[in-house]
Design goal:
alpha/beta, 32% helix, 5 helices, 7 strands
């Protein structure tokens, strides 16, 4: 894992080239790679596919659906011929069988514990609703596994500024019960095209530090 101390942002990074590598149903099927990897994960229906499409400035790189659980495999993209974007299956209330939920949980656990070129995980949290227990549990689990991650608040356009501020504050208060130092948190909106620069710049800065 990459050490994220002494970190600095750059605001000039862009995603110019996107190549779909493949969709892999199990961790063992993932090809080994020399490229640094950044993964995006969150609760089902958190807006992950929309955010990925926005970050890549493409309309249908990731399939968008109103039905939770659309992503059902490890989806890999080569970005700028220099790093890999990993789209993980969402967790939570997806309308899938119990057996498949358990399979996903085990496969993602294998990925998080065993992916040697994983640099950073972006955990997506829906800012339009109050904090969810499963998000807090996931954050604490990542901390216990010593996996570096940032939090991306999605759907910031779905609430008034006041409601957004209240939801974020409640979320931070909840996380603060378990963490002495909060992980970095950023606001995004695929609908309003907001937040891409800071996300891509964070990735770019880490790549320069490797």
């Amino acid at each position: 894992m990459i050490n994220l101390t002494n970190f600095a942002f750059r605001m000039d990074a862009q995603i110019q080239h996107v190549e779909f590598i493949g969709s892999f149903p199990k961790f063992k099927d993932l090809p080994e790679s020399k490229f640094p990897e950044f993964c995006f994960w969150g609760r089902s229906n958190v807006g992950k596919s929309s955010l990925i499409n926005y970050l890549c400035n493409r309309k249908e790189i990731a399939k968008v659906s109103s039905t939770p659980g659309k992503t059902q495999a490890f989806n890999q993209y080569l970005i700028n011929n220099s790093w890999i974007m990993m789209d993980l299956p969402g967790y939570g209330y997806a309308r899938i069988s119990k057996d498949k939920k358990e399979l996903w949980a085990q496969e993602i656990k294998r990925y998080l514990n065993g992916r040697q070129n994983l640099c950073l995980l972006f955990l997506l949290v829906d800012s339009s609703i109050e904090q969810q227990k499963i998000d807090i549990e996931t954050i604490n689990d990542l901390g216990e596994k010593n996996i570096p991650f940032y939090i991306l608040f999605t759907k910031t356009d779905k609430s008034t500024k006041r409601k957004l501020s209240i939801n974020k504050q409640k979320f931070e208060n909840e996380v603060s019960q378990f963490w002495e130092t909060l992980p970095p948190m950023f606001e995004t909106s695929a609908e309003k095209a907001f937040g891409r620069d800071v996300v891509v710049s964070a990735i770019n800065a880490i790549l320069k530090s490797i």
